[in-house]
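Input record (Table S2, row 299):
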Amino acid sequence: NSAVRDRLRIAIQKSGRLSEPARALLASSGLSWRESRDKLFCYGESLPVDLLLVRDDDIPGLIAEGVCDLGIVGRNVLRELINEREESGKPAAFREWRALGFGGCRLSIAVPDVWDWQSPTQLAGKRIATTYPNQLRAWLRTQGVQADIVMLNGSVEIAPRLGQADAICDLVSSGATLAANQLKPVLDILQSEAVLAGPAHPFADARADLADLLLRRMDGVLRIRDSKLLMFQAPREAMNELLQLLPDAEPPTVCAVDGADTLALQALCHGAMTWQRLEDLKRAGARGLMVLPVERMLA
Ligand code: ATP
Ligand code: MG
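Output record (magnesium ion complex):
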């Protein structure tokens, strides 16, 4: 599918854990859409960027086939397809363009509570149920462990209770689902989060500029996600100590007020601005502390 295109098409999950945050990220990046009646396609209005609403598992394939240009999908899903293609000697047609900071989870090995876990060698000869056979196979190989992979499409966590498997390899966030099934996570084989996936090669038509614009805006949104603008005044001699308290700040703007004995500072801080931190700053000499939300940023 090498047709020249002047609109960009992004695949996102239709409904599920990633759909709301993905839409919110794109909307914060200045995109707006008109939804089709079947709610599967959203026509971009503010920019020529359309959305296709699909099952998350289909996203890498849609990019590989050129049906979609970009996609927002869990690294776990993307990695699985990359590993599958590697196994069969095919180059991956897509890659991770950006980590997006939401949808965090781990692909973990979990074993029955009652196991006395020591090391992966305990998995030798066991049956491990998973929805991610390619990542599990690759990991077992790096460990030099031979085990049977039992491919399941869902409800992996009940496989040991049903006698289908001895252990599992599944997504974990809080661990509550595992605990409810008398399992415990013992090893993470992948740290996952939602990512922006795109083709392995850059676009050669108008989509290149569009993708570039969108990436820059998304970077701006991601950079300020938890950021705040901090402002205060302080005596000149207190400033060094105050700056020590701001390890998460971008280089601040400092200017003199009141002759030169008092300095006013403003800095973009990336960490949480808790009351505790403000109180520490006040104790170190800061006055008139203010924390302001940051709406947009363009580097
Ligand atoms: P679809 O109908 O689109 O196939 P799904 O059931 O496969 O949906 P979800 O359960 O919505 O998908 O999960 C989507 C993604 O959310 C996962 O692939 C993973 O990257 C991420 N995620 C974050 N936390 C968890 C978790 N605790 N369990 C499963 N997925 C999680
Ligand atoms: Mg799915």
